[in-house]
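Page 42, continued from yesterday. The earlier attempt failed because a stray header line got pasted into the input along with the sequence. Redoing it now with the clean sequence only.
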Amino acid sequence: MKYLSFALIVFCLNIQSAFAQDSTAAVKKKKMHGTFYVTWGYQKDYYTRSDVHFKNDRDDNYDFTLHNVKAHDQRDMNDFFSQPLTVPQYVFYGGYFFNNKGDWGIEAGWDHLKYIVTEGQTAHMTGQIHGVQYDQDTIVNYNFWHYEHTNGNNYLTASLLKRFTFFKSEKSHHKLSLIAKAGGGFLIPKTQSVIMGNERDGPFRLAGYVFTLGGAVRYDIYRYFFLEASMKGAYAHYTHDKIYGEGIANQHFFSQQFILSAGFNIPLSKD
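This time it went through. Structure tokens are written below.
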């Protein structure tokens, strides 16, 4: 009987030891890998021509479109060191590569672009204003019609990333990668508009959606810092942008961004 009890005790100790080893292994397996990162940068932007439609049938009476209008950005870099960092056209991204190889990742970001319909251009106008029909060319000027997002043609997006590393130094102190990005999200502008002398400025609001596609060259330095040059194309659709009174504007266009940025990595493991 004593031998049987002794055998049972030894058996239980072995089971407990094995369970502890399995638990330790499980904990090790659950350890997170990959890398978080944060980046900030500035950009130059270009826009395609677009048709801009204005309508108000609630507290006014107009429904007209200006066709094929051109627009430009506004970099605001002249007084860079004497103004807030958020005045120029900037980008702010945060992301995560899933594993140490960095093959796939996700990124959320805020792109602060500026969009201004160019003053003085000739645009064709169709539609009606106060019951009068129009189908003619007109000069875009501030007294009649003005439309801009200088406090933000803002893109709030999430993207899927794929990284291709084509150079890595012997001790991984320096690394060059190509990163492909595809995503989408929402337009959150602060629109300044003038409609027949009536002006409205803001506020920030959800006004449409955007799809993005881009690529970047990233230079990682000692694992923790990086520089990045990137291009991003976007399709932006303003479906219900608020203007003066109960008026609504809508349009769609393509944009092209050229971005220079810097950031830092937060590796989750030592290897």
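Notes: DSSP finds one helix and 15 strands in the chain.
Reminder to self: strip header lines before submitting.
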